[in-house]
Specification:
Number of helices of chain B: 13
Subcellular location (chain A): Cell membrane
Structural class of chain B: mainly alpha
Largest interface: A-B, 89 and 86 residues
CATH superfamily of chain B: MetI-like
Order of helices and strands of chain A: HHHHHHHHHHHH
Number of strands of chain B: 2
Number of strands of chain A: 0
Main location (chain A): membrane
Oligomer: heterodimer
Helix content of chain B: over 70%
Transmembrane segments (chain A): 9-33, 71-91, 103-125, 131-152, 178-200, 232-256
Shape of chain A: globular
Largest sheet of chain A: none
Distance between the termini of chain B: 23 Å
Organism (chain A): Streptomyces fradiae ATCC 10745 = DSM 40063
Largest sheet of chain B: 2 strands, antiparallel
CATH architecture of chain B: Orthogonal Bundle
Family (chain A): Belongs to the binding-protein-dependent transport system permease family. CysTW subfamily.
Radius of gyration of chain A: 23 Å
Number of helices of chain A: 12
Radius of gyration of chain B: 26 Å
Shape of chain B: globular
């Protein structure tokens, strides 16, 4: 083995893993410009922009996409509100059931999704609930909740409680203290939790698959298309989601860098 | 941090009624904060598990209805009928976890120690694929591993497929619909869950420890074996758990990339619940999966000697 390779073995191995991670995304990007012959978009035929020009060109796809966005928005709202309250209670107060609550938060994250999905289905079947948007929403709030708690907890824990004491010393009421001191400081944690909840809910397949009845979310649509034939538009949506995520990260970094610069100028 | 902050520091020697009134109001606040979220988890997480337990000891049919008859043999019958799928799930998940560790460690190490100003770019590249729906990415593996495709052709030319076929991981000149494809998909899908905890624990290591090891004439390999790796153990343990648990219950990879011979226990549970509609067997299977994972995880944590983690 030449010395150069030996010295950079870790870097080379790491970059190989990175390639493994990104390879499917590259394939999704490339095949979004494909014009397949049959129903299946698995072999490269020829370059075409058709799918990008008309993302809603296949029936039901954009309906499923809209439903998933709506579902993710409501699930995020629910999980973020409930999770933030729990996180504040866990960090700021000592109370008797603390250990039990911590376990209740931890368990949903450490259980195979299929078990949770199946047990929810038995609940809904026993209650005679009609499977659909509402049952899926309830389930999504449930499994996103824990992740919000963890994200918000991390932020609130690193927060200096003396800031709130100072606000109170300056005669701010509890509501004022919360709205003008606590909430702004905790906001990045809450935002991170909300973003995570949105991504998890939007992409969830297993729990939705069990509890959706005949409701078709975007992941359910993709799952069905694997049997019926995958339209190129699915790759367009996948590529667009990847692009939005990368752009959001770049924008966030740009904003924080600028804010840091203006702050240091002061 | 505590309720002590409820009384302003300036209020020294307050009147007796004030002392008893204020903390009492404060004492209820955490419960009010917890109530909605905890209620949600109790009703839609804990209660369903109770219902599933009761379903697993029911007998009956969909037409006549199910009834709790404390029919425990369901568990035994489920295990008897589906133990191959159980064993396969644990084998595939275990292999995928090991591969994740082998593949993920160099990348986590690279990001933590060698990336410099590229660190954030690499981290984004680890997380960003998440945002393309995981089903779409798994379907992309169908394209990558397609029969007669570039990857399969290259593996064939390198005579890798001869070896894997003999081991039973692939069949002839095919990769798709074989165990190798399923394990490849599992490894791919759960790799970020390994990399992120590894990165977090590696990043926390004090660089001066590496310098000290070098000063004491340790070779890079010895430094890694005696300093870096032991200190990254919390990340290794967290990463393996975060990979193994979801991988052992997964059915998407086996369904999209595998065949009927590569069915995992998740596929069986899904089929029993959504197609066969044999709810008691399905519930028993999902409890057995939970029990198997619980036992393995407990043993593993004992062995790894990091009980304080959980």
């Amino acid at each position: 083995m030449p010395g150069w390779i030996r010295r950079h073995l870790v870097v080379l191995a790491g970059l190989c893993t990175l390639a493994y991670l990104v390879l499917p995304n590259v394939v999704v990007l490339v095949f979004s410009f494909n014009q397949p012959n049959g129903r299946f978009n698995y072999t490269w035929q020829r370059f075409s922009l058709d799918a990008w020009k008309d993302p809603c060109g296949v029936p039901d796809l954009c309906g499923a996409l809209g439903l998933s966005l709506q579902l993710a928005a409501w699930a995020t709202l629910g999980a973020t509100v409930l999770g933030t309250l729990i996180a504040f209670a866990l960090v700021r107060y000592r109370f008797r059931a603390r250990g039990a609550v911590n376990a209740l938060i931890f368990l949903p994250m450490s259980m195979p999704e299929v078990v949770m999905a199946a047990s929810l289905l038995t609940l809904f079947l026993n209650m005679g609930a009609e499977l659909g948007f509402r049952t899926v929403l309830v389930a999504h709030v449930m499994f996103c909740l824990s992740f919000v708690v963890v994200a918000v907890k991390a932020r609130v824990m690193s927060m200096d409680p003396r800031l709130e004491e100072a606000a109170r010393d300056l005669y701010a009421g509890p509501v004022q203290t919360f709205l003008r001191v606590t909430l702004p400081i905790a906001a990045p944690g809450i935002a991170a939790g909300a973003l995570l909840a949105f991504a998890l809910s939007f992409d969830d397949f297993v729990i939705t698959n069990f509890n959706a009845g005949s409701t078709v979310t975007f992941p359910m649509y993709v799952w069905g298309s694997a049997q019926r034939g995958t339209p190129v538009q699915i790759n367009v949506v996948g590529t667009a989601m990847f692009a939005v995520a990368v752009l959001a990260v770049v924008a966030a970094r740009f904003l924080t860098a600028r804010r840091k610069r203006t702050r240091s100028r002061r | 941090m505590t309720t002590a902050t409820d009384t302003p520091p300036g209020a020294a020697a307050p009147a007796a009624p004030a002392v008893t009134r204020r903390p009492r109001r404060g004492r209820l606040v955490p419960y009010w904060l917890l109530l909605p979220g905890v209620l949600w988890l109790l009703v839609f997480f804990a209660l369903p598990l109770v219902y599933q337990a009761s379903t697993s000891v029911q007998t009956g049919s969909l037409e006549e209805g199910f009834e709790v008859t404390w029919h425990f043999p369901t568990y035994w019958e489920a295990l008897r009928d589906y133990h191959p799928q159980f064993a396969r799930s644990l084998l595939y998940a275990g292999t995928a976890t090991l591969l994740c560790l082998l593949l993920g460690y160099p990348l986590a190490y690279l990001i933590a120690f060698r990336a410099g100003r590229w660190r954030h770019v690499l981290l984004v590249l680890v997380i960003a694929p998440f945002f393309t729906s995981f089903l779409i990415r798994t379907l992309a593996w169908k394209t990558i591993l397609a029969d007669g495709g570039t990857v399969v052709g290259a593996l064939d030319a390198l005579h890798v497929l001869d070896v894997t076929s003999r081991l039973g991981w692939t069949e002839g000149d095919r990769v798709l619909a074989t165990p190798l494809a399923v394990v490849c998909g599992l490894t791919y899908n759960f790799l970020p869950f390994m990399i992120l905890p590894l990165y977090t624990s590696l990043e926390r290591i004090d660089g001066r420890l590496h310098e000290a090891a070098r000063d004491l004439y340790a070779s890079p390999a010895t430094t890694f074996r005696k300093v870096t790796f032991p200190l990254s153990m919390p990340g290794v343990v967290a990463g393996t758990l975060l990979t193994f648990i979801p991988a052992s219950g997964d059915y998407v990879n086996a369904e999209l990339l595998g065949s009927t011979d590569t069915k995992m226990i998740g596929n069986v549970i899904q089929g029993q619940f959504l197609r066969v509609l044999d709810y008691p067997t399905a519930a028993a299977l999902s409890f057995l999966l939970m029990a198997a994972i619980l036992i393995l995880v407990t043993v593993y944590i004992r062995r790894a000697g990091t009980e304080e983690l959980v």
